[in-house]
Specification:
By secondary structure, this protein is of the alpha+beta class. 38% of the residues lie in helices and 21% in strands. It contains 15 helices and 16 strands. The strands form 3 sheets. Strands 1-5-6-11-10-9-7-8 form an 8-stranded mixed β-sheet. Strands 13-12-14-15-16 form a 5-stranded mixed β-sheet, with helices on both faces. It is elongated. The two termini are 52 Å apart. It binds zinc ion (2 copies).
Length: 416
């Protein structure tokens, strides 16, 4: 027996019926993002490994454990992108987009890759919608992004969501927080999981990302970053909250919301679903004011969010719209020719048509049209070819009409 090749663990096929749902989510998403004047930017799926080491951060789980890193044939270390932001930053610098008059507002929809433990709803190739804005310092943009995230979910008919916000401070105020956090976490070291004990040394903020129950409990008693903000960060955060109120967005300040990535400064936020369990984040994002500069670019602040499509699609309600298509029923070479011509004409007029090039009886073709859910059957036999008038059957009502291809188009167009 020949050996069957299977899909790689942690990947999955999106089959046509499900792909319809993806298309509909993607098209709503694009429409909304473009309403806010975001433009699509497409960067390569793989990049130099150092881009993510530097951008995403050496101490993050993503970089330590989850990257798809490999050597190409020239011995370069490459990585399949685990997230999108570093690629956009690289592209802006490389293409000098910051020198152009257009605002730096970008979106992207596509696959990301993380060597994560495969579990329900989590894949090693997963898909994200990602948006980024650069050069806007005012917290009004932070609020506009949160407002857009909420509007997007509303347009996708996702209900039962909650908006969580926080500020993670800046390079001036965070160090003293980290110091206190580390010393308090040190005191309860023994109840922390091994992973968190390691984080304690590298980056204690990451303890807040841990899903282990004892770690979560211990983290409840840790100091809150919001008590350590410098005046600038404090003001930014309170103005951000005012703008949220301006948009009538209900939100909750969640001081433990630090997000699993190193580059965040000031604002972080999540929109979560109360319908999902522990992994309930639908949209997560924040500000990264130092990243562009650290990559050797101009001193431009940035903010953005990512939305995981697999999880989102699991909560988006979807009613499958039956495609309205015409199925050609024919017999013999001449009718096939006539049918091909009629179908060629109808397709150019925007009617979806299906011809299958197999010899079958009229009766079995009719039952196939029925089984596939065709809205119409166009029936062309010898007699119809002679008359140049074809039969059109409405599959729902059973009603049959006759006409030239132009007349048939008219009937199709005029039917509800
Ligand atoms: Zn600060
Ligand atoms: Zn832990």
């Amino acid at each position: 027996m020949r050996k069957q090749v299977s899909a790689i663990k942690g990947t999955k096929d999106i089959l046509p019926r499900e792909a319809k749902k993806w298309q509909s989510v993607e098209s709503v998403t694009k429409r909304i993002l473009e309403l806010y004047s975001y433009k699509e930017i497409r960067t390569p799926v793989f990049e130099a490994t150092e881009l993510f080491e530097k951008g995403t951060g050496q101490t993050t789980d993503i970089v330590i454990k989850e990257m798809y890193t490999f050597q190409d044939k020239a011995g370069r270390s490459l990585t399949l992108r685990p997230e999108y932001t570093p690629s956009v930053v690289r592209s802006i610098i490389e293409n000098r987009l910051y020198l152009k008059p257009e605002p730096l507002r970008f979106y992207y929809i596509g696959p990301m890759f993380r060597y994560d433990k495969p579990q329900k709803g989590r894949y090693r190739q997963f898909h994200q919608v990602d948006i980024e804005v650069f050069g806007e310092e005012d917290p009004a943009i932070d609020a506009e992004i949160v407002e857009m995230a909420n509007y997007l979910l509303k347009e996708l008919k996702v209900s039962y969501t909650e908006t969580l916000v926080n500020s993670v401070g800046c390079k001036d105020c965070r160090p003293s927080y980290i110091k206190d956090l580390r010393s308090q976490a040190e005191e309860v070291r023994r109840v922390l999981c091994l992973d968190c004990q390691r984080k304690l040394k590298l980056n204690p903020l990451r303890i807040f990302d841990c899903k282990v129950e004892t770690c979560r409990e211990a983290a409840q008693a840790f100091p809150r970053i919001t008590d350590y903000l410098c005046q600038d960060c404090e003001e930014h955060f309170s103005r951000f909250c005012d703008y949220l109120a301006f948009y009538s967005i209900k939100y909750k300040v969640e001081p433990r919301l630090v997000r699993g990535i190193d580059y965040y400064t000031k604002t972080t936020f999540e929109v979560v679903s109360s319908k999902l369990g522990a992994q309930n984040t639908l949209i997560g994002g924040g500000r990264y004011d130092d990243m562009m500069k650290e990559f050797g670019g101009p001193d431009l602040c940035g903010i953005g969010f990512a939305m995981g499509l697999e999880r989102l699609i699991s909560v988006v309600p979807f009613t499958e719209e039956k495609g309205k298509f015409l199925y050609l029923v024919y017999l013999g070479d001449e009718s096939e020719r006539a049918g091909m011509k009629a179908v060629h004409f109808l397709r150019r007029e925007g009617v979806e048509c299906l011809i299958e090039y197999k010899e079958r009886s009229m009766k079995s073709q009719m039952s196939r049209a029925n089984k596939l859910g065709a809205a119409w059957a166009l029936i062309i036999g010898e007699e119809e070819v002679k008359k140049r008038k074809y039969k059109l059957k409405n599959m729902a009502t059973g009603l049959q009409m006759e006409g030239t291809q132009e007349e048939i188009l008219k009937i199709i167009r005029e039917s509800p």
